[in-house]
């Protein structure tokens, strides 16, 4: 029985080392010193066609910023834009008390508009450095106001964070800048000619 023409063509291609009309790629003989034709996959750059490696259970996962980190970033940006320039202006304001109150107002505005809206736990730890820098700066403005005689002498730098905290404590009760009323009361408390001296600070708060 005669073989079909298609079978004959297939046999010719096989004997000639062809596959689907293309020359077959011969593997190098392991014992032939690397002679022969390497397969196409061996000539590709390493990793060119490799699928991406899946993350394993031991791989580190990039840490996402916490909520406090995001709040601190917002506070820092607002501080540099709105408070730092006021601090610089207060250093040269002829009326040191006015400069001091403007610093207080700028800081309280940030607290009211950004911080209270974002967190109820107070200033994030990541922003503590800003708070320390702020009160260190306004302490110098306070000293200059006392030298000018516009601020009572029994107010110390350690009082300032507590006084501003008193104003901040009024913010949850009023969403319409009601804290400004208590900043005005604080301004009157700071001014000289008090009706009675203040009780002394507690130990370790000088």
Structure description:
- This protein has a domain at 68-190: Tetracycline Repressor, domain 2 (Orthogonal Bundle), CATH 1.10.357.
- Helix content is 51%, strand content 2%.
- The chain has helices spanning 5-15, 40-43, 67-92, 96-118, 128-147, 159-168, 179-190, and strands at 18-19, 22-23.
- A hairpin with a 2-residue loop joins β1 and β2 (22-23).
- Residues 5-13, 15-21 and 117-121 have low confidence and may be disordered.
Quick description:
With 206 residues, this protein is an all-alpha fold. It has helices at residues 5-15, 40-43, 67-92, 96-118, 128-147, 159-168, 179-190, and strands spanning 18-19, 22-23.
Task: Record keyword descriptors for this entry.
mainly alpha; elongated; 206 residues; Tetracycline Repressor, domain 2; two-stranded antiparallel ribbon
